[in-house]
Each structure stands twice: as C-alpha cells, then as structure tokens.
Amino acid sequence: MAGVKGIFKRFSSECETADKHREEELQTHYFKTSLDKVFSEVKRYYSSSEYTITSESPEHGEIMIQKKSSPKMFIIATIVSVRPLHTAVDIKASTEQTVIGGAYPKLKQEILSCYKALGQQMRRADS
After folding, report:
1. What's the distance, Cα to Cα, between the start and end of the chain in Å?
2. 53 vs 70: CA distance, rounded Å
3. Rounded Cα distance, 76 and 31, in Å
4. Which residue from 27, 97, 111, 112 has the fewest beta carbons nearer than 10 Å?
C-alpha cells in the first residue's frame, strides 16, 4: 500500500514543510538569528530574475513569490520568531502545471534549494 501512496504523492501539486514532517529534509528549518535577518535573506534568495515577489508582509512574516520558469510555481515563505535569535522558516510550493513524471519532486527540490542557500548564509539552530 505504501507504494501506491508514493505514486500518488509524486503527482501531488503541492509540497510544504512542517515541524514534524515525515520526510526529514522537509522539516521546518530554524536559524540562530533575528526575524529581520531571516526575512531579508529569504527576500534576497527570491530576488533573482527567475522569481517575482508578489507580496510581502514583515508584520505577519510572509513572503509570496511566483516562479516564472517551468514549472511555474506559487511559493509562500513563512518566517516566525520562536524566541530571541531563534527563527523558523516554513515554505509551501504549489503549481497548477502538469509535469511529466509528477510535480512533487520539482516542488520539493525548490524548497530544498532555498533551505540550502539559507543554510549557507545563516547558522542553523536546533529545533
């Protein structure tokens, strides 16, 4: 039965991180720095020509992004200060495009690429 679930998951049109996600690499990432610094780094990551930041709300810790290249994606990055100098980042990516072989791997790779870039700029914290 797990194989069938895996096949359906592969064709899912959304992927998101969570505190207790089944896939370890998709668990919420925490950084030892301020909310403002993390917010700025996430914005900087998505400031390339491949993306358009459609909305940002520092008060709510959300940035909404559209990826222009194929597959086109809608991405929401949520940044939350858990305690002083301990900030969480969750990302949700979704697409309306049909992707041969399934969209989920592409969406997951998008999230992991962002996490990797953030990890190179800021020190990770334990959850």
Report:
1. 32
2. 17
3. 18
4. 97
Alpha helices in the chain (DSSP H): 2-10, 35-45, 104-121
Measured CA to CA, the distance from residue 127 to residue 70 in angstroms comes to: 33
Separation CA 13–CA 73 (nearest Å): 10
Q: Which two tokens stand for residue 111?
A: 């999230």
Does the pTM surpass 0.85? The reply is yes
* pLDDT tens-place values along the chain, 127 residues long: 455 555 667 788 999 999 999 999 999 999 999 999 999 999 999 999 999 999 999 999 999 999 999 899 999 999 999 999 999 999 999 998 877 778 899 999 999 999 999 999 999 997 5
